[in-house]
Specification:
The protein has a single domain, classed as Cytochrome P450 (Cytochrome p450). The protein is about 50% helix and about 5% strand. The chain has helices at about 5-25, 30-35, 55-65, 85-95, 115, 125-135, 140-165, 175-190, 205-215, 215-230, 230-235, 245-260, 270-280, 290-325, 325-340, 350-355, 355-370, 400-405, 450-465; strands at about 70-75, 80-85, 375-380, 385, 390, 395-400, 465-470, 495-499. The strands form three sheets. A four-stranded mixed β-sheet has the order 1-2-6-3, sandwiched between helices. α7 (about 140-165) runs parallel beside α19, α8 (about 175-190) runs antiparallel to α9 and α14 (about 290-325) crosses α17. The longest helix is centred in the middle third of the chain and has 34 residues, at about 290-325. It starts with a helix and ends with a strand.
Length: about 500
């Protein structure tokens, strides 16, 4: 290589390095120039250097302790973002000033229709249309019907616990066990398929959901980029669902839809029926001919993921806490016993479960201490004045630190303690002035919230009715670093003792 060519390469490389350093320096000075306290970033990765080693759940909690203030600047890679940490600001972002924050920050691209068009990620105006059409799926009347199925599946859950973890003395993986339970329920809720993987039957849904239980490094990386660094997800063309899961959902959906083509009636109450109606009702301007089909499939996919992940996590942590709190466990057992004594059928139906205040309190306190989603994200779609000192520019993500609010010592004294009495007499829809937001709030709150909580109630009541729970691992459970949502590392475990 000639000296002149070598000199040219060195000069070009030096200029590139200098320009990169200038760009990084300017980007990481974003919050400093605005006089906002920020979490010190690292080169290129910003504040995300912990990823795949620790969970975002842990980071949100640590950020609250490190910067105990109303808001703090962070960097998602090279993207500046604002993390707000008070109920008042949460209310403004989620509800009061929703017109400034209509969409989520997560990656949404037509190259991944199931990932881009589901109710969680889809942008306005399609989001509003889909939300309106799906709302009837989650009425109280519909939920009463589904509760009967949840109770049946909870009975199978009890049988499996007795068969595998009492009689055979296997060590239980709670996350996997409850993913089986929720998978059985969602199989009927979405596709009208009555099947029980809990009783070792072949389940078409379990082929999809079992892969959601075990987050590998790669799936964890994919989800993390989709939710936190969408520019990387776009560049790498990452997928919300794996290719295998996507094809399986398509095949299953269209098989069921084909069977309904000539027989569809008002008797079909599952999500497939609602989605077929949604296709007929959607008014999509300038839509491609297959856009409605993609929207239908996307809703089926995200409902499966959301129903399985959040409920299985909440049940896993609820049993863990009850195992370490025998007095609270006994109080819950007494409430279940008394409620059962009042029923003629010996089964706790929808209203029976809703009326059990201590059961609800145990569930709410678990959701407070261990919210499955530790943060809520919104993308600023037009310049927004947060207060007299801070203006959020269009395109800047704003995150609500749910952990900071749920673990605020002024709101919840001794926040690391699990105390169900905090939530006695709290109703399902009460966000306690935005101090309790495990399902989000405002127009984009989780549409399946009541469904998920009833799923937890039905399983928790029958588990406590039949078994005493004893600890089988240390109280402080490590969180899964690969999971973008909260999950106990190794799935979590307890010891079941028949009553």
């Amino acid at each position: 290589m000639s000296s002149s060519l070598l000199s040219s390469l060195l000069w070009t490389s030096s200029c590139a390095v200098i320009l990169l350093c200038v760009y990084v320096y300017k980007t990481f000075g974003y919050w400093k120039r605005r006089g906002i306290v920020y979490d010190t970033p690292n080169f290129l990765v910003g504040n995300l250097g912990f990823l795949m080693r620790r969970s975002f759940f842990d980071y949100c909690l640590e950020l609250k302790d490190k910067h105990p203030r109303e808001y703090v600047g962070i960097f998602l890679g090279m993207q500046p973002a604002l993390m707000v940490q008070t109920p008042e600001l949460a209310r403004n972002i989620l509800t009061k000033d929703f017109d400034h924050f209509q969409n989520r920050n997560s990656f949404s691209n037509q190259s991944d229709p199931l990932g881009a068009l589901n109710l969680f990620t889809v942008k306005n105006p399609i989001w509003r249309e889909v939300r309106h059409e799906l709302s009837p799926m989650f009425t109280g009347h519909r939920l009463k019907f589904v509760t009967e199925l949840m109770n049946q599946n909870a009975k199978e859950l009890v049988k499996k616990v007795q068969r595998d973890y009492v009689d055979k003395k296997k060590k239980v993986n709670l996350k996997e066990l409850f993913s089986m339970y929720t998978s059985d329920t969602v199989a009927y809720t979405v596709f009208g398929i009555r099947v029980s993987v809990l009783s070792d039957q072949e389940s078409p849904l379990w082929h999809i959901t079992r892969n959601m239980v075990h987050f590998t490094f790669w799936r964890g990386f994919e989800f993390t980029m989709i939710f936190l660094v969408p520019v990387v997800a776009a560049f790498m063309r990452l997928k919300f669902f794996s290719e295998t899961a996507t094809e399986y959902i398509k095949k299953l959906f269209w098989n069921v839809a084909s069977q309904r083509k000539d027989t569809r009636s008002a008797a079909d109450k599952d999500l497939v029926n609602h989605l077929l109606q949604l296709k007929d009702n959607l008014k999509l301007p300038h839509a491609a001919s297959d856009l409605s089909d993609k929207i239908m499939l996307a809703q089926a996919g995200v409902f499966i993921l959301g129903s399985v992940e959040t409920s299985s996590t909440t049940l896993s942590y609820a049993l863990h806490e009850l195992a370490y709190h025998p007095e609270e466990q006994e109080a819950l057992y007494e409430e279940v016993t008394q409620a059962l004594a009042k029923t003629e059928s010996g089964v706790l139906q929808y209203q029976d479960l809703m009326d059990m205040k201590y059961l609800s309190a145990c569930m709410y306190e678990t959701l407070r201490k261990h919210p499955p989603v530790p943060y809520l994200d919104r993308l600023c779609n037009k310049t927004y004045k947060l207060n007299d000192e801070v203006t959020v520019e269009k395109g800047v993500p704003v995150f609500i630190n749910v952990m900071a609010i749920h673990h605020n010592e002024k709101i919840y004294p001794e926040p690391k303690q699990w105390k169900p009495e905090r939530f006695i007499n709290v109703s399902d829809g009460d966000n306690l002035n935005y101090t309790f937001i495990p399902f989000g709030d405002g127009p984009r709150f989780c549409i399946g919230k009541r469904y998920g909580m009833m799923q937890v109630r039905a399983a928790l009541a029958q588990i406590v009715q039949h078994f005493k729970l004893e600890p089988n691992e240390p109280y402080e459970v490590r969180t899964d670093p690969y999971s973008v949502l909260l999950a106990p590392y190794g799935g979590g475990t307890v010891k079941f003792v028949p009553r």
